[in-house]
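Notes taken during the Thursday session

The instructor put the following on the board and asked us to keep it in front of us for the whole hour. The protein is Sulfotransferase. We were told not to look anything up and to reason only from what is written here. First, the residues (127 in total):
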Amino acid sequence: PEEEYCRYVIDLLKAPLPEGKSICYQKHQAYHLIEEIMGLEWILPFSNCFLIRQPKEMLLSLHKIVPHFTFEETGWSKLKRLFDYVHQNSGAIPPVIDAHDLLNDPPQMLSKLCQAVGVEFTESMLS
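Then, after some discussion, the predicted structure tokens were revealed:
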């Protein structure tokens, strides 16, 4: 059942966009990736980018939800694996955005991200 569920999720993520839509933003957490079942090749057709946080802030936030978490539960190993996979298989370094930078200057950071992934930036993206 878990394998069927993962296939179902991947199929949903890869489904055609609704009529009239030309882009779709999806946010995922590396921790939830089940590479043994899902593989990674399905992510390559997408424009991948990585949103990161300061480790201390991320750990404090995780601690509120999971007081006794393991290193694996931080998702750092999977995030590094995912970043390396995208880099090696796309031939390009994927964009990495620090959450602080995004919060401090949303127009500039979103504009840079759009440029990096080949999407036209519009002010309406900020609301």
